[in-house]
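Input:
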Amino acid sequence: MAARIGVVTFPGSLDDVDAARAVRLAGAEPVALWHKDRTLQGVDAVVLPGGFSYGDYLRCGAIARFAPVMESLVDAARGGLPVLGICNGFQILCESHLLPGALTRNDSLHFVCRDQRLRIENAATAWTSAFQPGQEIVVPLKNGEGSYVADERTLDELEAEGRVVARYLDVNPNGSRRDIAGISNAAGTVVGLMPHPEHAVEPLTGPTTDGLGFFTSVLTRLVGA
Amino acid sequence: MARVVVDVMLKPEILDPQGQAVQGALARLGFGGVTSVRQGKRFEIDVAGPADDDLAARAEQMAGTLLANLVIEDFTVRVEP
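Output:
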């Protein structure tokens, strides 16, 4: 039986359909989860997609954090459920305190949309095991509030524990501290990523198919478990 | 009826590019001597009942739980009758 991976739709989510498509192309069964759901329907992993949940009102992800589905998700994630938060999903994971730090307005004040080169710094997380350590990939990036910030101590801890999952190469598009594009929790099960791997899974529409690795990684983990 | 006023500001060490843009615009408009601009948020919350210590405590909770992200922001709470 194929692994079942939930994709949460909040009011204002944009990339839930692309995320579900990426899950399917990777060989898993996507399961649509609604923000008002109180259960996760027994899924094996969850993707929090990009977009502007609740209109980005108050702060990006601040209101989504308290959606009914997030109560179940936060508990499950603390219990080891693999969760990938992309863009707005990353913001929601930080607001939920599943990941440290926060994402603030791009230092340029401009919304940035580009094909972004990244280096995979940690290829041992639930979502990056399909990559080689140090592998360089190109996936789309599109954000207005993608500048990763945390205090120096937290940044040092993330670096020391190998929890910087991906780093920007060539240019730092949004002013993120230490060129951080993605981080993980201590267990490597919860990953937040500002760029969009779900938009780089097919040659027709993506700059590459490099993004598929994030989704096949979690499948390998689930099948191996 | 009581009013709770919550002011939320980015912590001093967090870059505020919006404040910097406002500072630049003020200079272009000829307002001299502006050395720094920081932009924040103000919430005015009307609550049924008296402006007492209990409301002050609940207001602190509102601010700490939802209105401010303590990773990047500080807040102050004021309760007015």
